């Protein structure tokens, strides 16, 4: 186990080194912010543990236990504004662990989507994200209101790219945008990550002869899925089980995001806040894998990583 002070210190050092090496100087008019960009990234990432029931719970913990490390900790509302302002830096930080672990070259990557609930689907009214969150279906929880998160994971569990859309967007249109942005990057949508020079393994939600041919031809994305049960050329049972065993890692990763890093309890009031916290959860996930590797522990052993 690692004590919280050591964990936060290592996280801050990595964030500070990353900002100095990869990001331009954050120069803005007016007085200096109470926290540096590295400090904001550190607090945003560390605050995603499920031990903190909410942002308010984490802020109380930071006031009591992290004042020595962050003496200029501002009011909670100001901290939230700083986190939203630096959300692009958090996104970049979350995806750089693939290079630190030297896992950019793999045999395949796994792509899949998961439900992100933002509001009780049975409530009346427009809610906090009208026109952005929609009603969708998830095999895990049924009907829900919120977003659909699409993630790409390598065999070691590192999240190499992610994006989200309203819950009523299906897997194939979401993958179309994801592959297009990986092929032709846009500076405002860097969360999709770098193109994978290997096949993508997916479930039947991404199946479709014409779609897969289009992705391979136009974006260089070869997607491997098992045919549907009513296909003229179905796979034998042993092949379907083999593909399911390869895909199991992304189910484990989503379980970590939802239950260990509080994604299932997200109730965002603004889209930028959701973007920042989602990137922070993915950064915490990748950082914990990197830390486990450094300490010679199992990569996804997060439950006993910290000695609270």
Helix % is: 40-55%
Class from helix and strand fractions: alpha/beta
Weakly predicted, low-confidence segments: none
Helices and strands, in order, run as: EHHHHHHEEEEHEHEHHE
Instruction: State mean pLDDT (0 to 100 scale).
Output: 91
Helix count equals 10
N-to-C CA distance: 9 Å
Report the biggest beta sheet as strand number plus sense, adding barrel if it closes.
6 strands, mixed
Shape: globular
Oligomeric nature of the chains? single chain
Rounded Rg: 20 Å
Strand content: 5-15%
Could you tell me the number of beta strands? 8
Structure description:
The chain is α/β, with parallel strands linked by helices and 308 residues long. The protein has ten helices and eight strands. The protein has helices at 4-22, 37-46, 55-65, 76-85, 87-95, 97-100, 171-183, 209-219, 237-260, 271-294; strands at residues 2-3, 109-119, 134-138, 142-153, 159-166, 200-201, 223-224, 306-307. Strands 2, 3, 4, 5, 6 and 7 form a six-stranded mixed sheet that branches. It has a two-stranded parallel sheet with strand order 1-8. α1 crosses α2 (37-46), α2 (37-46) packs across α10 and α5 (87-95) packs parallel to α10. The termini are close together.
């Amino acid at each position: 186990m690692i004590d919280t002070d050591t964990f936060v210190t290592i996280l801050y050092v990595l964030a500070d080194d990353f900002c100095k090496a990869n990001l331009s100087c954050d120069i803005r008019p007016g007085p200096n912010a109470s926290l540096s960009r590295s400090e904001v990234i550190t607090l945003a990432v560390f605050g995603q543990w499920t031990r903190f029931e909410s942002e308010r719970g984490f802020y109380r913990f930071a006031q009591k236990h992290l004042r020595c490390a962050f003496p200029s900790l501002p009011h909670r509302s100001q901290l939230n504004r700083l986190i939203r302002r630096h959300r692009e830096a958090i996104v970049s930080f979350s995806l750089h662990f693939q290079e630190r672990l030297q896992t950019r070259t793999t045999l395949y990557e796994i792509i899949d989507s998961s439900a992100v609930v933002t509001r009780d689907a049975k409530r009346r009214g427009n809610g906090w994200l009208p026109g952005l969150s929609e009603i969708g279906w998830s095999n895990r929880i049924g009907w829900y209101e919120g977003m659909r998160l699409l993630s790409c994971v390598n065999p070691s569990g590192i999240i190499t790219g992610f994006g989200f859309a309203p819950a009523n967007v299906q897997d194939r249109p979401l993958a179309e945008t994801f592959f297009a942005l990986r092929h032709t990057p846009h500076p405002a949508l860097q969360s999709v990550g770098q193109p994978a020079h290997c096949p993508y393994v997916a479930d039947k939600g991404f199946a479709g002869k014409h779609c897969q041919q289009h992705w391979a031809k136009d974006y260089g994305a070869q997607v491997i899925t098992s045919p549907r049960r009513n296909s003229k050329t179905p796979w034998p049972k042993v092949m379907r089980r083999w593909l399911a065993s390869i895909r199991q890692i992304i189910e484990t990763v989503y379980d970590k995001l939802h239950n260990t890093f509080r994604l299932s309890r997200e109730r965002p009031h603004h889209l930028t806040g959701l973007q920042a916290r989602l990137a922070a959860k993915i950064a915490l996930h990748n950082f914990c894998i990197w830390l486990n590797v450094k300490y010679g522990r199992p990569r996804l052993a997060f439950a006993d990583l910290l000695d609270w």
